[in-house]
Amino acid sequence: MILQQLINGLMLGATYSLVAIGYSLIFGVLGLLHFAHGEVLMAGAFMGLYIILWSGLPLYIALPLAMVATGMLGIVIDLLAIRPLKKDFHLAPLLSTIGVTIIIQNLAVKLFGGYGTRFPDAIKTVHYKIGPILISSINILILGVSLFLMVVLYFFIAKTKIGKAMRAVSESHITAGFLGVNVDRVVLITFGIASALAGAAGVMIGIAFHAITPFIGLTFALKGLVVMLLGGLGNVVGAMIGGLILGMAEVMSIALLPTEINLQDIFSFGIMIIILIFKPAGLFGSRVTQG
Amino acid sequence: MDYLISVATIAGIYIIMALSFYLPFMTGQISLAQAGFMSIGAYGSAVCTVKWGIPYVPAVLIGGIFAGIVGVLLGLPALRIKGIYLLLLTLGFGEIVRVVAINLEYTGAAEGFPGIPYQKYTLLYAYGMVLILIIFFSRLRRSRMGRAFQAVGSDENAAEVIGVNIISAKLLAFSVGAFMAGIGGGILAHYQEYIEPLMFDIMHAIEFLIFAIFGGIQIFWGPIFGAFVLTFIPEFLRAIQNWRMELYGALLIIMMIIRPQGVIGLDTVQVVERLFRKALGNVNRVKIGSL
Amino acid sequence: MILEIRDVVKNFNGFCALSNIGMDVEEKKIHALIGPNGAGKTTLFNLISGMYDVNRGEISFKGMRINGVKPHLRTRLGIGRTFQIVRLFGFMSVLENVMLGRHCKTKAGLLKTFFRFSMREMQEEKITRENAMSWLEFVGLTRKANEVASNLPHAEQRLVEIARALALGPDLLLLDEPSAGMNPREAEELNSLISRINQMGKTVLLIEHNMQLVMGISDVISVLNFGEKIAEGNPSEIQDNPAVIEAYLGRKR
User: pLDDT-derived band of residue B14, with 50, 70 and 90 as boundaries?
Assistant: First the structure.
């Protein structure tokens, strides 16, 4: 039974990792905790939903399409709400992203209604029995896609020229600029990648839960930020591991504490408070202190 | 005419709310909890008048004090938490208040709390409170605590080394801000005659933030201006009413790009003071900087 | 001895910034702290002013052990400081910045601010303002009193920071590289400013890289390298000390 829950936890955790990686990437190059990242995830989920619904395309085409669309949304956000900001006011990016959040969420409610929208069945749900546990095709899909994306991302950052540029910008805008890196363009690309990952996470969540609402943005914003605290701000690998840990911990908490109230969200909220009070720099230490 | 009075009354209440956001903001604390405190004040004062027969003014005060006490409780963990995490903490608090209100049978639960005695001089009470707050903030500006608040908001560590007790400064600002929000809630409750949990949700908390940030954060006239203008304009442009929140979001982003300090800044105040001096001539010399 | 440092050790996550530091600062003297970059000088200042706590060892001020005492309380005891990189409150005026120096010496809280019944509060505010103006006069910046602090040129910002620290009424003033970014003329004026501060009876502990300034004005010089004190003495002793020369210039091959 525990093992069963762990599988679900891993699946959930994998989506959290995808979200948290996006946060890490953006925090790395901009020093900004992108409040609207959750809304990007939500938008991606809806875009995926409608792509599948209207085009009938199979998932392996629809998902990349949704990711591209979400990536473009991220790029638009950077161009309109982040890049034009002046550097003097250190709260400006945070406040600007709050503005983005309001716009996206309210638009979504107008477009899609405040109640849940059913997510189309993208794949056939088949259950496989491995020993004592039941793994569904959904579990496999989500875990597989997430892991695949994480591995691709890891090699991208480690091996490609752009990846190196991203790492340089994370260290220092000024130094990277001296070395000839177009900082603005790197930031743009980072936004695109982070948002695309969020889009993938959104679609995965839709598949996992069979329904999405315009309000999942804030929930996942919270979860992603908690993972950041667990794994260390700006630490991409930490985000990956932290996400899996949070997912499993959440699932465990539901399994072990049977109550009516939706403890899930309060659980991650509670973890956030505890970490922040006792270890404001995060569990694994961060490269910069939060703020 | 009646319509104008009702809009003006709401504007007055919202001015109080914008100022309640502004006080903790001066010490660097961005709080989305003011809607929650407003809720506590509203319900608290309503319980006083409806269930216990306490007259209006003491009831509203009690509501405010109750909110202020909760403000101290929330303010304590908030001391160590900054930036986006404080946003989430205060957001979470607001949600907790809302969920508690939805489940509390004594105050009507989700159906709301009807039958609150109507206060026909609400306009006077609201602007009376605004006047009190104006006196408070203008005295604060020229005082030791005011400088201390600004110093803490500007550079916490340097302020501490100068000798400012940052813990008491932040806690004080946060709890007095909560008190103000509670008063605003009490006044609102006895104007609308009916309150329900949804009236004090996340979007409202963000609205108060926008009033203050748009209006101007360098001086207390900013939030007053912001709340007043942003309450009146949607009333007169019917066309945009449905898009109010999206417009607020866009406004926030635009302000961050073109004028992050908000509409009303120190420069604005200087211009106004100069005009005042010209108008009054040498006969009645207005003390410079008295605003 | 106004400040006594005994066997102080400070680690940061395994990196040892300071080891076995012992130092006595004599009252009413000008005591300089020099050493190559990274030697641990600012760390020592941070330990004295309370921003960090020592891992081992003791710091005593005016004969009283101050380990673990919070920064704002140390200020009240009489320790003032400036920073390596100027940390003024940029959006406040120069005068307001200096007035903040008196924060811990005044009492008006929030309630008194609002009610302002007593003449005492209004008096207090007036005194604070006059006190601040007099310190601005001391550093020669009264004409900039109402300017927004971040608008001032760098050297003047440093002077404002010193004025602010002086408004605290400290007995011990920690100056962290006050001449950084100043041209020779400004450094000269700084030199005489520090002398005047010392003549008022204040003890000055000074981190500096400007050797002319240091040699010209100090009574005692302590030299740090790689977190250890390698020499101490008056200016001429230090100038001839081979260990000091080696620390700055590297080992002669």
Answer: very high
Angstroms from C246 CA to nearest CA on chain B: 35
Q: Does A290 touch chain B (CB under 8 A)?
A: yes
B15-45 exposure pattern, b = at least 16 Cβ within 10 A, e = fewer: bbbbbbbbbbbbbbbbbbbbbbbbbbbbbbb
Q: Is C46 on the interface with B (CB under 8 A)?
A: no
CA quadruple A12, A14, A15, A17: dihedral sign: positive
Residue of B30, B83, B249 with shortest CB distance to A99? B249
Residue B166 in tokens: 């940052």
- Quick: pLDDT tens for A208-223: 888 888 988 888 888 8
Residues 6 or more apart whose CB falls under 8 angstroms from that of A154 comprise: A236, A237
Backbone φ and ψ of B94, nearest 5°: -60, -40
Amino acid at A265: D
Residue pair A142/A14 in contact by the 8 Å Cβ criterion: yes
For the stretch A77-124, pLDDT in tens is 999 999 999 877 888 899 999 999 999 999 999 998 888 888 887 777
Residue of C nearest to B156 (CA): C89
Q: Are the C-beta atoms of B108 and B215 separated by less than 8 Å?
A: no
Q: Say whether pLDDT at B31 is over 90.
A: yes
pTM: 0.86
Note whether B8 contacts A: Cβ–Cβ < 8 A.
no
DSSP H or E segment with residue C2: none
B138 and chain C in contact, CB less than 8 A: no
